[in-house]
Specification:
The chain is mostly helical. It has five helices and two strands.
Amino acid sequence: MKIGQMRKWLGERRFDLDPIYNLSYVGKEVLEVLVQPHHLKPFRLSATSNDLSVSQEFDPTDPRSRCWLADSKGIKDMARHIRNTFIARVAYEGSNSNKSLVRNFYRDWATELGWSDDYQTETTRLNRRPTVGPVQG
């Protein structure tokens, strides 16, 4: 399901979409939701009532995360794949968001992981040409 379709699906299920800063697929089956901190509890309640699970502790940079199970077949260097995929995704989200909070969130996250140089390189590359989606590494 595309992000626009996911937003529509959430709206049809009475999720309050205004407090959601950003939606981004982390893997084939995992959706990252940036939501206003004070709205986390209502979001979790809506998710639970719609048979969705929410994890605040989820780490998309951890090779043991369940989001990588569906993607792991045939990948020799999973840590490199995760790093490349993460950088491509967050650079894409940071470059294309019209919300400074989202851009800053992803930039700061990459910096905290020690990947700011890679993030900057990818955002520079993305800003030089038209973007069509995150690059899969």
